[in-house]
Please model this.
Amino acid sequence: MSFELVKGFYNGDGHFYANKTQMNINLTTVSENLRNQLYWLLVRNEELPLLNERKIMISGDCQRLDERAKKPSRKLSSTAMTYYGDYLLRPIKKIDKISFNGTVFNLGVEDDNSYVVNKIAVHNCGRGKHVHVFNYYNIPAEGYEPSKIARERSIGLAKDKLFDSIPSKVYDCVWCCDVMEHIKEDVVDYYLEMLFKMTGRFALFSICLEGDPNYVKDPTHMTCKPRNWWEAELRKAGFELLEIPDFWIFKHQLFLCQKGGFNVG
Model:
């Protein structure tokens, strides 16, 4: 039924042209909303449309959909859109920053912490690079990653070592990299207490701090605090803070902790 709507629009405002290798079917409208709606109708019918915009003299911007009869390969490519399972992937060619003043809603879905908005798939991407490195140096490690796509595309030795639920066991060392600043301030203590329970001996945190120019570059950062604030929160959760070695890179944002009862020797 949805494809019949597209066919009806084509009969009114569509045309096609062909060359030696392919035939293109064009749908043209001055409405950006209608263009986007037609786009998703085609995608849901397993078609791969291209979006174009051009200036016309009479009515301003012209929104156009080009539907190629000869579909691109389903093999992953850095230059062409393709299907990956139930997902349609397209390359990002340009990123612009715009000013916005208003309410932003964050959506969550069951099982995977991912969703689609404005033709962009958003998820907690992490293919296990740290897990791979630890295991490469014969240090058994595993990781937590809620994104199914990221887990399926895990790299190297991280394969089959990424899990979709927070582990309930205790580890000799917990490595928490660039996570805490993405958590709301009112639940920071809850997650630190959870990580404390998972820690057998040591924990290492990397946290983007107040004053770091990288903090404002990421709109998903939620808790911007100085180092002494995070140190107090870590101690409140039960951690003992250790001195960061001078030769460690990014030592200004690292917090090396141990669980009480162990001596570093």
Notes: The first helix runs from residue 2 to 13. The CA atoms of residues 39 and 49 lie 7 Å apart.
